[in-house]
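From the pipeline queue, job 12 of 40. The input is one protein chain; the requested action is below.

Action: predict structure.
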Amino acid sequence: MKSSPRIRVIGSINLDIVARVHALPRPGETVSGGVLAHYPGGKGANQALAARKLGAQVSMFGCVGKDAARGQALALLQAHDVDLHGVTVLEDIATGVALIAVDEAGENQIVVAPGANGQVSSATLSDLSGEFDATLCQLELPVETIAYVAARVKGLLCLNLAPAQPLPQAILDRADILVVNETEAAFYGDQLHRSKALIIQTLGAAGAVASQNGKEIARSASPAVTPIDTTGAGDTFVGAFMVAFLSQGSVAQALAYACAAGAVATLTAGAQTSMPTPDQVTALLDRTA
């Protein structure tokens, strides 16, 4: 990496409550024998930590409740010196929580109770000044807040369109980079293609592809690994792509780096606890070159 990019992340901050089970339950089914653990999470916080661990200077903006879960949710961000001045603590509302079941193959099911994340608004984001190379936002916030951010922030804006929800075309048109997985790409369909943004689509174990104005401009395979837990791998990819793209300016190199970072993240349980260091990503890239 040539430099240390400055990234502002506006997004969700959760406590993940994770149960590891032999198989994910079908509708109406109870699966017993799970092992429970608590991890910091939330797409915003995950992507912020991933970018920070990979060398960026990161400022986090969002909301948490004034409760016991707040300390757990912010613990790793604090430990890795993510700037938390943009995080608002709210009275009488819970910190966001994600309930996650993970099976033996590393696949997961997730239910999110947004709590304080649903209160992120123009009021809590009143100060969006400061010098940043990019702003990164996801969709675990109210749509009107996403619209406010898109209209207010200056410079490069990356939107991770997850979880997919209906958005005005104007928001997609404002973004410089849109990151989607295969399900999200199908959900937005023609809306994506009407945007002039750089579109990054993740393909799971098959890697990722970048396109713009309807033309593919880069593609990368994902290094072959045996996953333990895929939770947070997508968020790791997003944070890693932004760090590599801002540092190097190459879409192709950023795709390869992000695919490797996402693969490393599947080798450890939890979302934020699995975020890799630059040495881990480089080692995997070297091993698979």
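Job complete. The mean pLDDT is 94.
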